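If you are new to this repository, start here. Below is one unmodified record pulled from the training split, so you can see the exact layout before writing a loader.
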Amino acid sequence: MGGLAGWEVIGVIDTEGDRAEWTFPAEPGVVRTARQAVRGQLRGWDLDRLADLTALLVSELVTNALRHATGPIGVRLVRPSGRDGVLRVEVSDPLPDPPRERAARPEDESGRGLQLVASSARRWGTRPGDAGKTVWFELALRE
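And here is the target side for that same chain:
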């Protein structure tokens, strides 16, 4: 995973599935770095077919976090141990307010991220944390 400055691997843990977690600073360039980290991990898990969609949705959520929060942004991937099930993706930030899905007008330059997550993911949601919130989504491993 070398060559990606500005992020820290918290861990890749083997439990009842695999997990990869990163913490990124809330600064310019973090969206691209998060995308690269996610793509690299999915490639390592032999889940290349999910890489484009996952990277796109992570980009949207990290962009939202970057736009509204000032602290670190966490990204976590959780893959079940079998070939069936779902890939769970979580993006955390220190802002406690849950994101709001809104209808963007054609001329709006933003406001489509959660719509994209909602229409692309099997399920999605938010949960409060000790210091902030997590927005998560799931993608089916099999079509």
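Two things worth knowing about this chain: Helices lie at 30-44, 51-68, 113-120. The first strand starts at residue 8 and ends at 15.
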